[in-house]
Amino acid sequence: MSSIPQEAGSRFKIEPDPPLSGAALDVTYIGPAGEVEYQVDGDDPVKVTPDSDGKFRIESVGGDEIAFSDNRGLPGFLFRRVLELG
Amino acid sequence: MMRTPIASSLLAVAAVVSTAPAQRREANVVVPAVYGDSEAPGTAFWAFSPFASRHQLLLGSSHLTELVDRPITAIQVRRNASGSEALAAGVVRLRLIMSHPSQAPAQAGETFAANRGPTESIVFDGVVALPAAPSTPPLPAPWAAPHSVTIDLDQPFVYTGGTLCIESETMAPSSALPAPWWPIDAHVERAGGSSTPIGEGCLDAIAGIDDASLRLGASGALYLRGTITPGSSGVCLLGLSATHFAGLPLPLDLAPVGAAGCWLHIAPAASLIATAEALPEVATGLANVRLALPLAPVMAGSTFYSQWAWIDGGANPLGLTFSAGSQIMVGGLSQLRDACWIESGNLTSSSGWVMRGRFPVLRLMR
């Protein structure tokens, strides 16, 4: 479990939080959208279909920032800065 | 984390709720009944959302035969067990309102007021404790703590037959506590309709459609996301053809009317107005519209088209930019008949998304 409280309002939960550069990121989405997106910096959004428990994994997080969206408004949005270690 | 007086008060109230002696139950009804002893294929927050929200669950009489003329004294939900993660304890401030709408769930729409019955009863108004639950629970999770949550109603509600509306108002979580994260078991059908992009747009934004929402009787979710200015407006054009418009072949070059580089991909027959909202920390805006898809079996598999036109006075002499088009095929009926869920992530909104084929598993206790 993340030791950093999730701010109110998001359908997304990530582990670890904040994400670590180069490390895998486990994402859970609880909401109505069948497909969600994540976007690293200014790259094109990547579409993902979470499994029936709302989970998907990003094998290696890159970039400086990552944003998740279900394109239905603020509750379905999460932004994080990627933590660079070492 | 340091506990503030507000946090301590909430936890104290929650502890009282969670440790209150269980009332004797004569029987109970699980909706949908098929999940009484089996895990449903999905998960949802329902009223335990980590954000302020309003929900209406409309249950038809076919689910509630055993409850007629009997009081509902509590509502129980159980955790999503297949997710297997440990869940942290939390609290939710919640109000539940019940009524008997005159219409069946099939007639439910996006407007909350139209779905309510003439006489409403506030049956619960307080704080609900969400217990800490261990990882890898039994499958399905038992109908007992810490795998389930029981909301003992302040006032029993006598179900007299017909449709039952359970409306929930979830308050914004206290800033003194972590937002709750307690996904519950839910019936979720994955298959919806489908969509296919048509051509290119002349604005830096993606026109998308949530295919899972394209189900008969539901709110189709269409969005535009990209470099659109928060607060700016436009329309989502809807049409029945992507081959001809006013006798002219499509796509139609819009350069002659002052929008060089833009194309009309569909024949507009209707439109829905939208305004872009800001997404925090990123230089993008988001606009979306809810398209009420009729609950008419003859519409299953039918096709229509959409394209966004966005007001941008500085973009070209026409003052409009255009997205790519989309071909949209509507899916079929939900397997879960005689029930409907309407949700808004804004507590003050007068309307919400109508969802079919998605429903929390509830245990109504009497």
Notes on the protein architecture:
The complex is a heterodimer of chains A (86) and B (366). With 86 residues, chain A is mainly beta. Chain A has no helices and 7 strands. Chain A has strands spanning 12-15, 25-29, 36-40, 46-48, 55-58, 65-69, 77-81. A 4-stranded antiparallel β-sheet of chain A has the order 4-3-6-7, with no helix packed on it. A 3-stranded antiparallel β-sheet of chain A has the order 1-2-5, with no helix packed on it. With 366 residues, chain B is mostly beta strands. Chain B has 2 helices and 26 strands. In chain B, the strands form 7 sheets. Chain B has a 6-stranded antiparallel β-sheet with strand order 6-5-8-3-23-24. A 5-stranded antiparallel β-sheet of chain B has the order 10-22-21-13-18, with no helix packed on it. In chain B, a hairpin with an 8-residue loop joins strand 21 and strand 22 (320-329). In chain B, 48% of the residues are buried. Classes of the chains: A mainly beta (86), B mainly beta (366). Chains A and B meet through strand 6 of A and strand 2, strand 11 and strand 12 of B.
Short description:
Chain A is mainly β and 86 residues long. Chain A contains no helices and seven strands.
**Rg of chain B (CA only):** 23 Å
Poorly predicted regions of chain A are 1-7
The first-to-last residue Cα distance of chain A is: 23 Å
Helix content of chain A: under 10%
- Residues in β-strands, percent of chain A: 35-45%
- Taking pLDDT < 50 over at least 5 consecutive residues as the criterion, the unreliable ranges of chain B are 1-24
